[in-house]
Amino acid sequence: MRAVSLAVVIAVILPLVLGQFWxxxxxxxxxxxxxxxxxxxxxxxxxxLPLGQALFFGLAAYLSGFAFIAFQNQIFLALVALPxxxxxxxxxxxxxxxxxxxxxxxxGAYFSMITLALSLxxxxxxxxxxxxxxxxxxxxxxxxxxxxxxxxxxxxxxAAVLLVVLAFAGWxxxxxxxxxxxxxxxxxxxxxxxxxxxxxxxxxAFGVSGLMAGVGGAIYAPQQGIVTPQxxxxxxxxxxxxxxxxxxxASLLGPVIGTLLVGSLSAQLRDSLxxxxxLMALFFITTVLVFPRGIAGLPExxxxxxxxxxxxxxxxxxxxxxxxxxxxxxxxxxxTVRVGEVTILDRLSIEFDQGxxxxxxxxxxxxxxxxxxxxxxxxxxxFGQIAIGSSDVLGLPSSGVSRLGVxxxxxxxxxxxxxxxxxxxxxxxxxxxxxxxxxxxxxLRRWTSPMLKELQSRYPFxxxxxxxxxxxxxxxQQILELAMALLTEPRVLLLDEPCAGLxxxxxxxxxxxxxxxxxxxxxxxxxxxxxxxxxKELAEVVYVLHNGALLAKGNVAAIQANPDVRAVYVGSEx
Amino acid sequence: xxxxIVTQAINVVYAVSTLAVLSLGLAVIFGLLGVLNIAHGEFIxxxxxxxxxxxxxxxxxxxxxxxxxxxxxxxxxxxxxxMIRPLYRRPFDTLVATWGLSLLLRKVAEAIFGPGFRxxxxxxxxxxxxxxxxxxxxxxxxIAVSLTVVTGLVVWFGRSRTGARIRAMVxxxxxxxxxxxxxxxxxxxxxxxxxxxxxxxxVMVAPLAPVQPFMGLDYVLRAFFVLIVGGxxxxxxxxxxxxxxxxxxxxISAVSNTTNGYFAVLLLAIFFLWLRxxxxxxxx
Lengths: 574, 284
Fold this sequence. Notes:
heterodimer; A: alpha/beta; six-stranded mixed beta sheet; four-stranded antiparallel beta sheet; B: mainly alpha; ABC transporter involved in vitamin B12 uptake, BtuC; 11 helices; globular
C-alpha cells in the first residue's frame, strides 16, 4: 500500500516540478507505459515474448479515432465507447492466443514470430487501406478529450489511466493467476499435471496484455489528434519490448520506469545523437543477457515487499477436492503405443481396482514410465481403453485426467524452483479445487487443508513458506513434490521411483509418507520401483511388466518364485 | 500458350527458388543448431548493403560476394562467440538475444546508410525469349544460382565427411564429442555458414528489392513460415515449404494484391501450426 500511495504522490507532483513540456511528454509516454506493462506481464511473468504488441495499441487507437470523429458532436458517446474499444483489443489478443497456444503448447518462438508477422500485416493494411485509415499520412482531425485546458490536464488523464492499469496488474500478480503465470514460465508440464489448462492460462495472460495496450491506444487517439500506421508497426512493438526489458520485465513497475525514462529520453536524444539508437540496442542486449532484472532490479527488496501477501493473515480452509468421492479405480485395456516402428506398450491390460499400495517392476524398457505417460494423457495410444473410475479417459489432456483424481510424481523432482515453498504448495491445493474465476481472488493464497497441516507438522521445512523451492536439497524437493501430489487428495497416485537418489534416512521418510498417505487417502498408490527391498516392504501386490505387456501379478513371494519373472531378470528370453 | 501465363509461371518458379535460397541460412541454423536466428533477415540486409557499396564504388558486381562473405563471416564469428555459445539449449534466451541483434544491426545500418531506401541497377539487364515470352535474364540467372546453391549444399551435406560430422553432432553432441569431433568448432562453423548464406542471398536479391535497414524483417518471417510449413531438418522440407509458401504468396499476390498474399501466407502458417506442427516433412 505504501508503494502505491508513493506512486500516486509522485505522479501528482511530477508536472508541477518538470513543467509543461515534460508534462506533455510524460502524458504521451504514460500511455505507451500501459502497453509496456502488458509486455512485462507476458514476458516477465508468464514467460512468452510478444513481438507485435503495438498491434493492440494501434488497433485501439484507430478504433478510438473513428469513434471520436463519428461522434464529434456527441463526444460523450465516444467516451462511452472507449472501454469497449480497449476490450476489443483484449479480445483480439485472447483470440490470437487461443489459436496459437492451442496447438503449439510451450514453443516460444512460434508465438513470437506470429505476433511479429501480425504486426507487420497490420502495418501494411493501415498503410494501404487509404479510404478508412487515411493511409500513410494517418487518420487526422480527431477531436480531443473534452474539458482539458493545458498539457498538465492531458498528463493527469494519462497518469490516472496508467495508475488504473498498474493497480489491475498489481492485483493480478498477487492473485493465484499471477502465481500460475510465474509457475508456467518455470514448469509448464507440472502445471498441466495439476489439472490446469495452461493454454487457457497463457491466452488469458495475452488477452490481458492486449487489453492494457488497448487502454493506452484508446486514449492516445483523442490525446494526439492523429493516428498513423507506425502505431501498429514493428517499430513501436520493438520499443515496448526494449522498455519492458530495460526497466525490468519481471517487476510491476519496471516496464513503466523503462518507458518513462528510456522512451522519453530517446525522443529527446534520437535526433541530436546519431548513434543513440545503436547504443540503446546494445544496452538492450546487455540487459537481457547480463542483467535480466533491469533497472527495477536495483531496489528489488522494496518491490518484492509490494508483491507478497502479508504472512500474518489468517489461513482459510480450502474446500474439498472435486475428486474426493470418485472410486479408486484405474484400468487399462489392450493399450498399444507405438513410436515410429517401435511398439512401446503391446496390448497392455492391467487393472488396479481398490485402494492400497501397488508396485510396478520390470527391466529397463519394459514400458513402466510409458504406462504412466499414457494414463496421464501425455502419450497417445494407437488403440485400447483406459478407465479411471467409470470415465473413459483416453484422449483427454493431462489437465483433464488430473481433475479425475489422478496425481503424479515425476522421476526427477519437478517443482517450481523460483517460487516460494508456500506458492508451490498453494498451486497443488488450487489444482482440482479452484475454478477459473476464483483464480482472480488473492485470498486463495491463504488456503490450507488438514492434509497440508499434517504434512507441515511432519516436515517442518514445508512450513518455511518464503524460501524458494530451488533452495531445498534434492531430497527435500522429492518430499515437496510428493507433498504437492498428495495435497490434490488423489484417488489414484502415480509415483515414479520416489526414492531415487535419496539417502537411506530420506528413503525411510518417503516410505513412511507413502504408507501414511495410503491410509489417509484410501486410494490406489501405484509405484514404479527398481529397488526390491523397497518393493518387499511396501507392495501389497506387485505387477511385472516386460516388453510392454503384463508378465505377472501377485504378492512379493509369488513374484519371486515365478519362473517367467526370474527368466526376465537373469536375462534369458523364454 | 498464353505468354502472360508463361510469365506468371516463371514468376512462381522465381519466387519459390529465391525463397528457398533466402531461407537456407535460417534453416541451417535452426534445423541443425536449434537456434532460431531472428537476425537472419538482417544478414540478408547486410548482403544487400554490401552489394550497394560495391556498386556505388564502381566495382564489378561480383566483388560483392567476397565482401559479403567477409562481413557476414566476421560478424558470424563474433555473434556466435559472444551471444549464441553461452545460450545453446536455452532456446527462449537465444530468441530474445537474436531479436536484440536484429535490432542492433538495423540501427547500425540506419546510422551508416540512413533510413531511406536505395535501389541498385540490375547487373545483367535485358531479357531473353523463353517459351514465347520475354523474361529478364537476371531473374533467370537467380533461379539457376538458387537451385545450384541449394542442391550443392544438400549434396555436400549428404556426402562429405563434414556433413557426416554435423549429422553426428545434431543427433548426439556428447557422443560426437567423445568420438573426437570438436562440437564447439563445428557448431560455430555451422552458425557462420548460416550467416554467410543469408548475406549471399542478400547480394542476389539486392538489385530487385528496395534496399533499406528494415528489409530483413519480411525475409526472416517468410523464411520462418517456409520452415513451419515444410518442417525442420531436411532439404525436402525446405523445398516443399518454399514451394507451398512461395507459390501461395505469388499466386494470391498476382490475382489480388501483396497484402492479401502476405495475409494468406500468415493464415497458412497458423493453419499448419494447428494441423501439422512439425511441417510437411517431419524429421523422424
